[in-house]
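Lab notebook: predicted structure, single chain.

Context: the supervisor wants predicted structures on file for every construct in the current expression panel, including those that have not yet been purified. This is the next one on the list. No modifications to the sequence; it matches the entry in the shared construct table.
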Amino acid sequence: MLKRLLVGRPLGSDRLAETLLPKKIALPVFASDALSSVAYAPDEIFLTLSVAGLGAYAFSWKVGIAVGLVMLVVVAAYRQNVHAYPSGGGDYEVATTNLGPTAGLTVASALLVDYVLTVAVSISSAAQYGAAAIPALKGHEPLVACLAVAVLTAMNLRGVRESGGLFAIPTYVFMFSILGMALIGLVRLTFGALPMAESARFGVETQPAYEGGFVTLAGAFLVLRAFSSGCAALTGVEAISNGVPAFERPKSKNAATTLALLGGIAVTMLLSILTLAHFTKIKFVDTADISREPAAERSARHPRGRRVGAVRRRHDVHPGPGDRALAKSVFHGFPPAFYLVAAATGIILVLAANTAFNGFPVLGSILARDGYLPKQPAHPRRPAGLQQRHPGARADGRGADPGVRRAGHPADPGSTSWACSSRSPPARSA
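Prediction complete. Output recorded below exactly as produced.
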């Protein structure tokens, strides 16, 4: 009973096509990691530029445009990859085919480590975000993170189609809440009714190394550093190219369309947040840079106005993710909308880890098929009467069989589909 509850009912090989993903489900399943980057990529740009003072904030939108252009170029490149390499190997297959097995293994190793770190970073960020929003969770972040990983694991045991249907709702809520916030914010800005951010009243002191502005070498490198930090928005874009077999037919076309949707939505959200942050004068400063000099000395040095060093509450200058700080300004006087954005941001940080649950099994299966991992992920042994069927696997387990439909694992990463028979069912032609 417990196994049936966690894994679901056995599914015959002739029904594996039912597990493939339409574009409306594939977008939230594979793009949650990339979309979640919008929650912190703008913050990284502002945090980097803040060391050069308030004047540096004027470069934020220019850095954002550069990041957006790079993302569009990367999306365009992956759109070509999904047509040229539709088997689901992604960067591993591209590197192996064009540069040889050594380069392919290097890329595959980096991807496997990246998937593990994606789970660790996303879940840790979500736990810290939750603790900041709910004081009762402070001090229990490790437990919250472990429970979140356990929940994601349990949900993915039922397969990517079923888990994707559940994960699609909060992902779409996040997208529409951010895009809605951007639209309302721009409308209020047009009519002059956009309130300033809570941190707008503070100043930011320029660090001595950057007093010469951006005409110096240090200033130029600071802009480049802000650009590299903002490129965190590109994380997770490769997940779609790694999961092409999970799409409904025509697989490559649907994957390319989903990539285009991801690129357009992510760039729009990123630039919208940066634009609104510029006009609401949000201040983001690394809390480690806040001065701790005595209040009397600060007052003597800065009799007019307030600088960041005079702030006693750190959240005044770094009030959490940029979208949450913006939501306070845009939805001023309407708290439910603010809480919706804050909740959606926290949930999307958790769901970003789901990208690894979808990508790791696919890549692991392909590496096992090529002999670089134990054979169990590619051809697991099962007792008589319960045999797992993988796409492209011969009945004798010796490579690809073009007569077997390319569906299921690895087309359905994270799922297990079983054919109940004492012998293998006959292969069906595509």
